Amino acid sequence: MKKREADLLASQWNAEKMCTDPKIIEKTVIYETDPAKKVARIIFNVPEKLNGLPIASLERVGDLVKEAETDNNVKVIIFKGNGPCFGTGAGADELGHYIGYKSGFSSEERKRPSQRQRMLPDRNIVFGAFERTIMECLKATICQVHGYCYGGHMQIALAADIVIASPDSLFTHPAFRYLGPSPQDMYLWIENLGLKKMKEIMLTMRPLTAEEGLQCGLVNKIVPLDELEKWAEDYAQAIALMPLDSIMMGKAVIQMIMEARGKGVGSMCGWIGHGWSTNLVYQRDEWNFLKERRDKGLTQALRERDQMVAPFFRMGGRGKK
Question: What total of structural domains would you count in the chain?
Answer without folding.
Answer: 1
